[in-house]
Amino acid sequence: MAMPESLMGAAYAEADRYKWIVSEKLGYDAGPAAIDEWFQKYWRGFVRARMVEHVLGMKYYTEFGDECFGVAERLRPVQPELVDWLIEQLQTGAENLDILIRAQDRNLPRNELFAILAVVDVNAWRFPPVASYANAPVS
User: Fold this and answer.
1) Per-block mean pLDDT, blocks of 10 residues, the chain (139 long)
2) pTM of the model
3) Of 80, 79, 114, 78, nearest to 99 (Cα)?
4) Are 100 and 86 in contact (CB under 8 A)?
5) Local structure of residue 132 (DSSP, 8 states)
């Protein structure tokens, strides 16, 4: 198994990089406001991208847990087209309802899709962003 990583730790590292870029552009330290701005602008997409990495088995994030880690690779031999299609949907930011509607429009197998979505529960991974930099973990 891949080395476990904290989603929040990875997020703060990314937010710190963003703060550095903003500070360089401004010519002075952008401070905690830049961290807060990153969480407001990029948190949701960041979580989704890390979730896809987890589902593909590329990187293990503790917040997502064991059950769905690498599930795409475990299911791909059984339903390769469906799994690949589902990963594409997840990468575009689709939620469970979006996925189900699009699958119905394409006449994809519902029971198999329900079984996969029961494990890859996108709706359960809506982690709220940290309210402010003051709540940042101490590293």
Assistant:
1) 86 96 96 94 93 93 90 88 92 90 93 86 76 53
2) 0.82
3) 114
4) no
5) -
